[in-house]
Structure formats: C-alpha cells, structure tokens
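Forwarding the complex inputs:
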Amino acid sequence: MARLNSKQTNELAKIFLAYAQVIGDYRYKNFSSLTRAQNKRLREYHKRTLDYSDDLFTMSAKLVMNDAEQALSKLTAITEQMEKSYVSLINVQKAIGIATAIVTLGASVFSLNPQAISEAIGSLSDIFETDSEDESA
Amino acid sequence: MNKYLIKASIILLFSLGIASCADLKHVGEFSSTSLEAVTAYETISYSFEQSCLDQCTFENIKNLNIIDNTCDCLGEQQADSISLKIYASVYAYFDGLTKLSSNDLTTYNTEALENTLTSGDFGPIKVNQEEAGSYSRISTVLLGAFTNAYRKNKIREYIKEGNEPLKTLLSFLDFNLSENLSGKLDVKKERIKSEYFELLQNNSLSAQEKREIATDYFNRIGKIESIQEKFTLYSETLMEISEGHQILTENADKLSLKEIQKELFRYASDIKSIVIEFKKIRD
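Prediction (whole assembly, two chains):
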C-alpha cells in the first residue's frame, strides 16, 4: 500500500484541525444547554482531535526528508564543486605571489648581487611557508 | 605586417579588457541578498520542539504534575533537524555563489611584481617604471579575462544545475514552517481558546478577574500571531528567492544583458524590503 507523503499528511492535519474547530465552536455556543457529561465528552473529543492534528503536522514535517532527500544531496554536491572553484580562483592570487618571488629571484641571479639573491630566496621561502601554513590550517 | 600585428594585438587586448570587466555584480547582489534573507530563519524563536515543550508543560500544570515532568519531544526534534538540514544546504549554496560572483575575487594584485621589478637592485638589468607598469597592467587584464571567463562558465553551470534542487528545497523549507509549524500554532491557538473558555465559565470569579483572563487570552493569541506573521513573510522571501533564481537560470547564457541585471536587482530590492518588514515584527 502506498504511503502518505508530506503534503497529504499536512492536508489530513488541517482536516483534523477543522473538525476540532467545529467541535469546539459547537461546545462554546451550546455550553449552557449541554449536560455536564455531554460537555466533558465534547471537551475530550475536542482535545483528542487537536492532538491528532498536532501529531500529523509533526509527521508531515518529518516526511519532508523522504521527499527532499534527492534535492538535498544534489544541491550539496553542487555547493562542494562551487567551493572548489572558489578555492582555485583564490589560488591564482597565491600563484602571482609565488611568480613575483621567482621573477625577483631570477633577476637577482642575473644581477650577480649576493645580497639581492639572498633577499629574494628569503622572500620566496616566506611565501611557501605561508602557503603551507594556510593549507595545514 | 608589423603594424597589422600591433593593431590586432591592441584589438585583442581591448576585447580581453572588456571581458575581464565582465560584471557579475547583479549575480553577487542577488545571491548575497538571498543569503542574508534566508538567515532570518535563525531569528525565528519557535520550533517544533518548543511547541512540544509548551504543550507538555501545559498538561503538567493542568494535571498539577510536578513529579514526572519529562517531555518526550523526539519526533519534534527530528522535524526541527530536517528543517535545519534544508536551511543549511540552501545557506551553503548562496554562500558559495556569493563568494564566487564577488568582483574582488578576480581582481588580482600585481603591484608587488611591478615594484620589485623597478625598485630591485639587479645590477646591469634596468627595468623602466613605465614599462613595468604596462606589463603588469597587461598581465592583470589577461589574468582577469581568463579567470573571469572561467568563473562565468562555472557560475552558469552551477546556477543551471542548482535551480531545480534549490527550488525544491526552498519550497520544502517554506512548507515545514508556514504549513506545518504554523499549523501547530493554529492547534495551539485552539487549545488556548478552549482553556480560557473554561476559565471564563467559572462563576466564582469576579468581573474584573474575568476581564484580566480575557486580556491575558488576547495577549497570548497576539504573540502566536506575530510568530505566524513572521512565517508568512519568510515564506514570501523564499518565494522571491525562488523566482529570482529561476530568472537567473533562464538567462544564464546572457548574464551581462542590462534587462537581466535590472530584473535581478529588482528581486534583490524586493527581498530586502521583506526582510525589513520581517525585522519589524516583535516576538
């Protein structure tokens, strides 16, 4: 037998709520003409019908998981891909930093200036260290 | 021949320059506004579990039960966790789209390269500042063009693939709040009405006491209706987001068109207005 889905369960919850409202309104309007026993019984029916409605609203919300599962996993997968694209674009800035340091090192080697070479190696090594710290963080 | 090549290079660079300025501001604006709007979920101070706890406490008070006052709200906790899961997924999607469409993302800084080339002491090698600046600007344009084209393609792909699952999840989040949780509040209103009706039938109470009871009744109902109003506005926000994303998807291949940009800015502005209304409602 086919199971109810979240929308159908919600419809049922609303129907029970409408029944409860009718029972309640009837009791309020006829309170003085009803016997104590009749009043008690109607109050109990009213409460029970409200309990059904309350539980059906919760059940409907839980059934949403069955209906939304596929969409949920699909959107999560897309978001993960998006994050990868973002990281790769951020890495371009890192690459520029590295390229800058390499160009500086190359130029300093051509200059045959030991101090410039040592400074360039130092800044290149700094960049790589920052990069590996970022990755391990 | 050389002149021809120079001319062609200038045209190519000019075209790339235009491409690199490809404006994704409207996509960024729409997604960041949507992101801010969906987070209103976190400000709604009512949940399935709260509804269960309220009812459980009400029953304990009615039955004068203070000994075993534990409340079984497992089902309601599950219902909350499902809504939260959907919310988190929608949030993550717009967060990703906002970051990816940010114009700052592909504005790379090559100033360091320019400075080191001109100020460095490279012995016989001299780089003229003007030349270094030009090379640096050209590389920025080329880099921007390449990365902008990459991210535009990616954004197009993600928007198209994400549209259906996003719309489904937005509608389920809306359904759980404005249909199910709000429905439980309707049940609560009916319970309160019945409770206060009983109290008002008590002939031993004075007219003043009955007036106070009636005032208390209207206060409680008013508070519930404020929460329901929040659900209604949140629902409108989710619908606007869904419609805006649909427009974005339908026009994913012509994202730079002025009409599309205008349309998306309109959606972003409508969403902002609803969020302002939402914030005005007191708990």
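The longest helix of chain B spans residues 129-200.
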